[in-house]
Amino acid sequence: MPMPSEETLQAIDAKLAQLQRRQEAIILAVNANTDSIGILAAKMEEVVAWMNEPPSSDLADTMKAVAVALRAVETALIAAPGQIADAVVSRLR
Question: Is 52 left (phi over 0), alpha (psi -120 to 50) or beta?
Fold first, then answer.
Protein backbone atom coordinates (compact mmCIF):
# COMPACT_ATOMS: atom_id res chain seq x y z
CA MET A 1 0.00 0.00 0.00
CA PRO A 2 1.50 3.36 -1.00
CA MET A 3 2.28 5.96 1.67
CA PRO A 4 -0.14 8.94 1.69
CA SER A 5 1.26 12.20 0.39
CA GLU A 6 2.53 14.89 2.76
CA GLU A 7 -0.44 17.05 1.76
CA THR A 8 -2.89 14.28 2.67
CA LEU A 9 -1.17 13.74 6.02
CA GLN A 10 -1.33 17.48 6.77
CA ALA A 11 -5.04 17.56 5.89
CA ILE A 12 -5.68 14.61 8.20
CA ASP A 13 -3.71 16.28 11.00
CA ALA A 14 -5.66 19.53 10.54
CA LYS A 15 -8.98 17.68 10.64
CA LEU A 16 -7.95 15.78 13.76
CA ALA A 17 -6.88 19.02 15.45
CA GLN A 18 -10.24 20.60 14.55
CA LEU A 19 -12.11 17.60 15.95
CA GLN A 20 -10.06 17.75 19.14
CA ARG A 21 -10.89 21.47 19.58
CA ARG A 22 -14.56 20.76 19.08
CA GLN A 23 -14.47 17.86 21.52
CA GLU A 24 -12.80 20.08 24.14
CA ALA A 25 -15.42 22.80 23.55
CA ILE A 26 -18.21 20.29 24.08
CA ILE A 27 -16.57 19.03 27.26
CA LEU A 28 -16.28 22.60 28.58
CA ALA A 29 -19.90 23.28 27.70
CA VAL A 30 -21.08 20.15 29.49
CA ASN A 31 -18.96 21.09 32.53
CA ALA A 32 -20.48 24.58 32.54
CA ASN A 33 -23.94 23.07 32.31
CA THR A 34 -23.15 20.69 35.16
CA ASP A 35 -21.96 23.61 37.28
CA SER A 36 -25.17 25.52 36.52
CA ILE A 37 -27.29 22.52 37.48
CA GLY A 38 -25.36 22.22 40.75
CA ILE A 39 -25.98 25.87 41.54
CA LEU A 40 -29.67 25.53 40.74
CA ALA A 41 -29.95 22.41 42.91
CA ALA A 42 -28.31 24.26 45.81
CA LYS A 43 -30.70 27.19 45.36
CA MET A 44 -33.67 24.84 45.30
CA GLU A 45 -32.43 23.20 48.52
CA GLU A 46 -32.28 26.67 50.10
CA VAL A 47 -35.84 27.39 48.96
CA VAL A 48 -37.09 24.05 50.31
CA ALA A 49 -35.32 24.63 53.63
CA TRP A 50 -36.78 28.09 53.81
CA MET A 51 -40.25 26.76 53.00
CA ASN A 52 -39.96 24.25 55.86
CA GLU A 53 -39.30 27.00 58.39
CA PRO A 54 -42.18 28.20 60.56
CA PRO A 55 -44.30 30.80 58.83
CA SER A 56 -43.39 34.42 59.27
CA SER A 57 -45.86 36.89 60.63
CA ASP A 58 -44.88 39.36 57.93
CA LEU A 59 -46.33 38.31 54.58
CA ALA A 60 -44.64 41.14 52.66
CA ASP A 61 -41.14 40.03 53.71
CA THR A 62 -41.98 36.44 52.88
CA MET A 63 -43.19 37.34 49.41
CA LYS A 64 -40.07 39.45 48.79
CA ALA A 65 -37.84 36.53 49.81
CA VAL A 66 -39.70 34.19 47.45
CA ALA A 67 -39.41 36.71 44.61
CA VAL A 68 -35.66 37.12 45.18
CA ALA A 69 -35.12 33.34 45.19
CA LEU A 70 -37.17 32.91 42.03
CA ARG A 71 -35.29 35.72 40.28
CA ALA A 72 -31.98 34.07 41.14
CA VAL A 73 -33.14 30.76 39.68
CA GLU A 74 -34.57 32.49 36.61
CA THR A 75 -31.36 34.45 36.05
CA ALA A 76 -29.25 31.29 36.25
CA LEU A 77 -31.57 29.45 33.85
CA ILE A 78 -31.57 32.29 31.36
CA ALA A 79 -27.79 32.69 31.47
CA ALA A 80 -26.91 28.99 31.14
CA PRO A 81 -27.51 28.52 27.38
CA GLY A 82 -25.62 31.71 26.52
CA GLN A 83 -22.70 30.73 28.72
CA ILE A 84 -22.56 27.32 27.10
CA ALA A 85 -22.73 28.83 23.61
CA ASP A 86 -19.99 31.35 24.47
CA ALA A 87 -17.77 28.56 25.80
CA VAL A 88 -18.27 26.52 22.64
CA VAL A 89 -17.66 29.47 20.32
CA SER A 90 -14.57 30.69 22.18
CA ARG A 91 -13.16 27.18 22.24
CA LEU A 92 -13.67 26.75 18.48
CA ARG A 93 -11.71 29.88 17.64
Answer: alpha
